Amino acid sequence: MSDNELHEMKILTGRKLSGRYVLSSLISLGQFTQIWEATDLVLSRTVAVKLTNQHLVSESIFLSKFRAEARTISRLNHPSIVSILDTTGDDQIEAIVMELIEGETLKDFILRTGPLPVEDCLPFINNLVDALSYAHKEEIVHGSLSPEKVFLCPDRGTKISGFGFNESAALLERTIEFRNDPNLSYTSPEQGKGELPNNQSDVFSLGKLLQFMLTGSENSSHQEIAFFPLNKKIIEAIAKATAGTPSQRYSSVVEFKDDIESAVSDTPDDDGIADSISADRSLNFDSQRIVTNFLWVGMVFFFVLGVVFATNLDDSLFGSDNTS
């Protein structure tokens, strides 16, 4: 954090917005926004406040677009999407008030536990797809999905933050030099070229996110993924989701999820493996029994043959004495 940012943080601490929301501590600092924990004096609750950085107060076109996108995003009402509670601000900043999420990010979870089996990834993917497909029906694209924006809440399940604000961010990217985004691994190639994200951009990010969950690596190439012990169909599905151009990807996040679920269902489960092992053991047991029986028959045959031979030998030896 730079000296200017530290100074700005000290100024904002304790600041009251709309006579209601008191900023208490900085949660995260982004390229053009920052998120604070705050107290709602009216409802006596703790909330999160996303506000624009103060140096952007002169960017009137950006602020106008930010307000418009905030109103649009506030329409989203889904259990896996962080809720927008209010919009506020003053002469120097614009802000949106959100529910405060207390939970581990998906990135921290994977870094702590290591890669997950694909079966364990499915519940997360199902929640993410449900939220993304809902937003897409509302004509809202996330545009910056990454493991750092997915929260695992013990009491509320999976939550996604950071929806929207793609147009206001694009305005600034064309006029202001930004720091390198740490989440570029999840950003679609078309966004890297300055294009606005679309539904297929979210498909790309979701594919990269699943790849991270399965491998624990954010930068693995398609060739490197092939060396992981993964179902071939899952590798192919991730490759399609993260294709270089939108037209080569899945048409929707639901279609991507369906292929992943199909690939998992095609993988032999534990019961199938157990049945196979049981059949092999049964086959081996039958083979051993046949060999054992054959050996017993052979032993009996040679025993009888030996008795017959001995009898004939005695006759030949003692028969001459009887004759004399």
List strands and helices in order, with pairings.
Elements: H1 3-12, E1 16-17, E2 21-29, E3 33-40, E4 45-52, H2 60-73, E5 84-89, E6 94-99, E7 104-105, H3 106-113, H4 118-137, E8 150-153, E9 157-160, H5 166-175, H6 189-192, H7 199-215, H8 222-225, H9 232-241, H10 253-266, H11 270-323
Antiparallel strand pairs: 1-2, 2-3, 3-4, 4-6, 5-6, 7-8, 8-9
Helix pairs in contact: 2-5, 4-7, 4-10, 7-9, 9-10
SS-based class: alpha+beta
Low-confidence stretches: 270-285, 320-324
Query: Between the first and last Cα atoms, what is the distance in angstroms?
Result: 126 Å
Overall 3D form: elongated
**How many separate domains?**
2
Major sheet: size, sense and barrel closure? 6 strands, antiparallel
CATH superfamily of the largest domain: Transferase(Phosphotransferase) domain 1
